[in-house]
Design brief:
The chain has helices spanning 34-49, 139-145, 158-171, 188-200, and strands at 8-13, 53-59, 80-83, 86-89, 113-117, 150-156, 175-184, 204-206. The chain is α/β, with parallel strands linked by helices. The chain binds zinc ion. Zinc ion (ZN) is lined by residues 59, 61, 67, 94-95, 118.
Length: 209
């Protein structure tokens, strides 16, 4: 992990209260406890000291967001529906703009930029690069502007937003590493298949930093 060139970016993905058991989040990921968040905090500080540029991704939904089961009368949390041909998992309301549990739990002073995603009520957005409607965030242009060629991705959750962000980073031409020990997954089977898919797409999986 050569960061001496200053060309390595770190993408800290969705480390927000609603995804943690620590903050009793509405969509808490197994194992995303206080110790996990502190581990992510420490690792991010270490990478910043090594000269990596740190970026954050923040799930940031309006209250009427399409991914909330509460916006689909008669539907339950975790049901899977089709919307205009797209598969949509219905989640409990989470990371609503401006709420306490939408905050990023890693020290915000570490971030060069925070990219918000999922702002459009019509589209979900697991990836920090684009939403399900194909609208790109500013992530790629920020990385390019900063001369980033390699990215390290970790956070929550392995099988959804980390996976989607790492795949889009690889597709955008970055050399991508995912640090498994700095991620937690929603479910064991989807987490295992996510890691396999990432490897198949040329993403390097490190157990720990
Ligand atoms: Zn979301």
């Amino acid at each position: 992990m050569d960061s001496a060139s200053g060309k390595t970016g770190v993408i800290v993905t969705d480390v927000q209260g609603d995804f943690t058991t620590w903050k009793e989040g509405s969509l808490a990921v197994n194992g995303a406890d206080q110790a996990f968040v502190h581990k992510v905090q420490n690792a991010t500080e270490t990478l910043a000291k090594k000269g990596c540029l740190i970026f954050g991704i923040q799930d940031w939904h309006p209250a009427d967001h399409v991914s909330f089961f509460t916006n689909h009368p008669g539907k339950n949390a975790f049901e899977v529906i089709k919307i205009e041909g797209r598969t949509q998992i219905l989640w409990p309301p989470h990371c609503i703009q401006g709420t306490e549990n939408a905050r990023i739990l890693v020290d915000n002073n570490l971030f060069m930029a925070i990219v918000k995603k999922g702002k459009d009520p019509r589209y979900d957005s697991y990836s920090g690069f684009q939403d399900d409607g194909g609208t790109e965030t500013e992530m790629d242009s920020i990385l390019k502007r900063n001369g980033i060629e390699k990215v390290i991705v970790y956070g929550l959750a392995t099988d959804y937003c980390v996976k989607a962000t790492a795949i889009d980073a690889a597709n955008a031409g970055y050399k991508v590493t995912v640090v498994e020990g700095l991620c937690r997954g929603v479910a064991p089977d989807t987490t295992e298949s996510a890691l396999k898919e990432l490897k198949d797409r040329g993403v390097t999986i490190l157990k720990e930093l």
